[in-house]
Amino acid sequence: MRELVILFTFILWALGAKTAEVLAKSNTSDISIISEGVELKGTTEEPDSKKNFPVILLIAGSGPTDRNGNQPGLTNNSFKMLAHELALNGIASVRYDKRGIAQSYYEGFSNASVRFDHYVTDAVNWIKYLKENEKYSKVYVAGLSEGSLIGMLAAEQAGADGFISLNGPGRPADEIIMQQVSRPGTPENVIEEVKTLIAKVKAGETTREIPPYLMNLFNPDIQPYLKSWFRYNPATEIGKLSVPVLIIQGENDIQVKAEDADILFNGNQSAKKVLIPGMNHILKNAEKDFQLNYATYNNPELPVNDELIRELVLFI
């Protein structure tokens, strides 16, 4: 009998190992579409399955963030890891470089020519492309940070099957900027300068008199983009969605606060809201301390949060 128990246990172990081996496989390939004459390049990662499966369009956050969640000088591979974990759970994904960024950069590109609505249109065209592919049973959209607002607008316009906000602001971008600038320790004159510049941008006044320490945020070339971004209120836009909505917010996010998830939920109370302890803005576990938290932005070995994966799989 003891030998039979040992043999049975071994068989279970072997079956478990074989199952894990099968689940650990995924298929990754390059992909691209043309949106308004611009070639957008991305990556698709799919389960190793012959059956139809759902797909998520992953939309990165603001700035020069590429499809993998990285920026020049900051490599964390958050989106790359997220896509792989989703594939292991039977969910395909497409992540892409936004126009003008990384491999979607094109000759003649200028920040001055980009508006927020261009990013929304590009996401709409990705959704339409995925919906036309018969191997995908459903098409979801998940946007991180700025990508949350892009995603909810695109999901509504293109008729996605569901939407997921990942650490998405609940307030207009100008209010978020003011919140981040107004942290303890910021000189009062800097706060006032930012407030004045935001007012000018919202009024459509392009100004070139920018203090050097605010040039990255208010470069004259991006002021028209900022104006096009400021006019949207995420709490209003999420309320227009009639499809299932999941709002996920990391409690240790140093860029977007937990109350933003509350604001989004108040805009769409049919949504599911999940606060994840320990998760930061780039979907990884981190301390609340600013320096320790920010250090994870350049740690490509740190995995994405486990509870995040469980919630996404449960939702889909």
Description:
- By secondary structure, the protein is of the alpha/beta class.
- The protein has a single domain (25-172, 232-315), classed as Rossmann fold, CATH 3.40.50.1820.
- Helices cover 41% and strands 18% of the residues.
- The protein contains 12 helices and 8 strands.
- An 8-stranded mixed beta sheet has the order 1-2-4-3-5-6-7-8, sandwiched between helices.
- The radius of gyration is 21 Å and the shape is globular.
- The protein starts with a helix and ends with a helix.
- The relative contact order is 0.12.
- Low-pLDDT runs of 5+ residues are 1-23
Spatial strand sequence of the major β-sheet: 1-2-4-3-5-6-7-8
Helix content: 40-55%
End-to-end CA span? 44 Å
> Secondary-structure element sequence?
HEEEHEHEHEHHHHHEHEHH
Mean pLDDT: 91
Name of the top-level CATH class:
Alpha Beta
Number of strand segments = 8
- The assembly state of the depicted protein chains is single chain
Structural class: alpha/beta
Q: Main sheet, how many strands, which sense, barrel?
A: 8 strands, mixed
Shape: globular
How many separate helices? 12
Note the beta-strand portion: 15-25%
| CATH superfamily placement | Alpha/Beta hydrolase fold, catalytic domain
CATH topology: Rossmann fold
Q: In the CATH classification, which architecture applies?
A: 3-Layer(aba) Sandwich
How many individual domains? 1
Task: From the alpha carbons, calculate the radius of gyration and give it in angstroms.
Answer: 21 Å
